[in-house]
Amino acid sequence: MDDARNTGAAPATRRGALFVGVGVAAALAGAGYAWMRSRQSGPVATPASGTGTAPGTDHAAADADQAGAQQFWAQEYETPQGTKLAMASFKGKPLILNFWATWCAPCIEEMPQLDAFYKQNSAKGWQLVGLAIDQPSSVRKFLDKTAVSYPIALAGFGGTELTKALGDAAGGLPFSVLFDKDGKVRQRRIGRLSEADLQAWSGLA
């Protein structure tokens, strides 16, 4: 009797293992599909609350914008030169915040354009900060060869949480945020900024 019961239990165990295996495979397939979808997604520009959001979502979007902005303005980061840079020091004038990394090809490709915009518009009150989501040593080594005129701050990989708080749910790079002179989020873009984007943003803040 014991042998019969044990013999019957073995196929059941194998069936259970098979079901678990199928479940794991399905989960992995789903994750792979989601990864492929994210790889296929292009740059996305999204307005902040009050600048084109759908009816009925303004209050929720405004709350999220305010929370993300407050988190950002409270931050202080080290610069590649070793000094401290308080984000609150940029309040009072329009600011483009650009999240980037040395390993992100589109981030590197847009830097000369961002630098040109900063040089052309800083005298008009425009500010630009590059917040590096990267190892400090990698950033310093990169900037030794490719200097930019706008300030760079070191957020480290923990800075990804700030990108999410500001509307980049996937934490993708590059990611840019436009703040107006009052410190409010006006526009965001996931992906490389174009010259047309910068021209359009310059009229919003």
From TrEMBL:
InterPro entries recorded: Redoxin, Thioredoxin-like_sf, Thioredoxin_domain, Thioredoxin_ResA/DsbE_sf
Main location: other
Organism lineage: Bacteria, Pseudomonadati, Pseudomonadota, Betaproteobacteria, Burkholderiales
Transmembrane intervals: 16-36
One family name in Pfam for this protein: Redoxin
UniProt keyword annotations, A-Z: Cytochrome c-type biogenesis, Disulfide bond, Membrane, Redox-active center, Transmembrane, Transmembrane helix
Keyword Ion transport (UniProt): no
Record-linked PANTHER family: THIOL:DISULFIDE INTERCHANGE PROTEIN DSBE
Name under which the protein is recorded: TlpA family protein disulfide reductase
Statement: the UniProt record of this protein carries the keyword Protease: no
Classification via CDD domains: TlpA_like_family
Domain (Thioredoxin) ranges: 48-205
Species per Swiss-Prot/TrEMBL record: Ramlibacter alkalitolerans
Compartments, record wording: Cell envelope
